[in-house]
């Protein structure tokens, strides 16, 4: 075998073994060179080297390119801001105040005229007692409308007023209106019970100012618009002989109730569509309350009249049995009149609001 390999020119076995050993040593050196030697662990409390380079800071968020963030949703805060341009609590309060003050002045003039034409003090007191509910209701509406103007001015000052500030402004304005009305009563009539009449008129104006501080203010303004419309209806019906002021005609009360419900409804619909009032769209309970607001105002007028003007009313009732019976009858009819206006107004406003709903939501 050895001889045959030698003859064929193959390398000797010793040379082959030497070559294989050299290749094995080379592979071992290569593997040893590629192994990573671990860093030695620090011994004890070794401090880091001072000149060690700090780690690379975290990369900052890249700034969005122009127009890249336009489609991102915008978060709108629901917290109240100082003032929204073009938004006022009760739109049209100035016009309502002018009309209310004009009506208030007219009722004072009528009261003064009736008292001045009386031949005796008894007739003067009776005339004052008959006109007192009308003057008190006009004073309440005038005080509320004037206070509403003050609330609007405070809201337009550029900041959101606190509840105490709003109430204070409304009450101060209504007190001023009440004092002017009381002065008009005293100047026009200085006889028995004049101070009681003046105090009752002033108290009604203050009560109206307190009501003007309620929210939403647009509902208060709507009720005032309905009250002024009812005053106009009462004047026309009284001129035609329906005697609507004393409440002797149920038809007059129904007509007044329909007006008291529809006029505030259209007022609220207009101001909410224009988006010029606080609170936005209102639900049906607010419309129903607005329609009943004029009737509630008449009931408040009745309470103020009977409490504040009790001395004058009792003086009239003490004149004779006929006067006492007449007073009881008139007081009862006024109460029925106010209740009819309240319920008919609430019903009319609710029906009108229901007509604006889609057919699927109608009850």
Report on the architecture of this protein.
- The protein is built from 11 helices and no strands.
- The longest helix is centred in the middle third of the chain and has 35 residues, at 121-155.
- It has helices at residues 2-8, 13-34, 93-116, 121-155, 163-188, 194-212, 217-239, 250-274, 284-308, 310-317, 321-355.
- The protein is globular.
Reported for the largest beta sheet, the result is: none
- Give the overall form: globular
Structural class: mainly alpha
Strand composition percent: under 5%
How would you briefly describe this protein structure?
The chain has 363 residues and is mainly α.
Topology:
Layout: H1 2-8, H2 13-34, H3 93-116, H4 121-155, H5 163-188, H6 194-212, H7 217-239, H8 250-274, H9 284-308, H10 310-317, H11 321-355
Helix pairs in contact: 3-4, 3-5, 3-7, 4-5, 4-6, 4-7, 4-9, 4-10, 5-6, 6-9, 7-8, 7-9, 8-9, 8-11, 9-11, 10-11
């Amino acid at each position: 075998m050895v001889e045959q390999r030698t003859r064929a020119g193959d390398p000797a076995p010793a040379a082959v073994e030497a070559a294989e050993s050299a290749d094995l040593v080379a592979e071992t050196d290569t593997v040893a060179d590629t192994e990573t030697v671990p860093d030695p662990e620090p011994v004890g409390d070794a401090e880091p080297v001072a000149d060690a380079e700090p780690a690379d800071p975290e990369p900052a968020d890249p700034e969005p390119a122009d127009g890249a963030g336009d489609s991102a949703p915008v978060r709108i805060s629901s917290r109240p801001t100082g003032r929204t341009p073009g938004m006022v609590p009760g739109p049209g309060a100035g016009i309502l105040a002018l009309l209310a003050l004009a009506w208030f002045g007219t009722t004072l003039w009528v009261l003064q005229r009736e008292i001045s034409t009386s031949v005796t003090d008894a007739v003067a007191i009776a005339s004052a007692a008959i006109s007192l509910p009308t003057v008190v209701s006009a004073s309440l509406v005038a005080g509320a409308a004037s206070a509403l103007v003050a609330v609007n001015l405070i809201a337009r000052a550029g900041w959101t007023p606190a509840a105490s500030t709003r109430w204070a402004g409304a009450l101060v304005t209504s007190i001023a209106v009440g004092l002017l009305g009381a002065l008009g009563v005293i100047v026009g009539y200085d006889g028995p019970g004049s101070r009681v009449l003046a105090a009752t008129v002033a108290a009604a104006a203050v009560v109206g100012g307190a009501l003007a501080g309620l929210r939403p203010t647009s509902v208060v303004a709507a009720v005032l618009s309905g009250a002024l419309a009812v005053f106009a209806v009462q004047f026309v019906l009284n001129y035609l002989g329906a005697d609507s002021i004393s409440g002797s005609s149920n038809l007059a009360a129904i007509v007044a109730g329909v007006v008291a419900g529809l006029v505030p409804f259209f007022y609220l619909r207009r101001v909410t569509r224009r988006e010029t009032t606080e609170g936005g769209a209102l639900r049906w309970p607010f419309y129903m309350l607005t329609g009943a607001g004029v009737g509630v105002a008449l009931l408040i007028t009745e309470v103020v009249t009977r409490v504040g003007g009790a001395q004058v009313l009792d003086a009239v009732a003490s004149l004779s049995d006929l006067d006492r019976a007449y007073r009881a009858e008139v007081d009862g009819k006024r109460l029925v009149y106010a209740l009819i206006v309240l319920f008919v107004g609430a019903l009319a406003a609710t029906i009108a609001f229901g007509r604006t709903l889609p057919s699927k939501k109608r009850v």
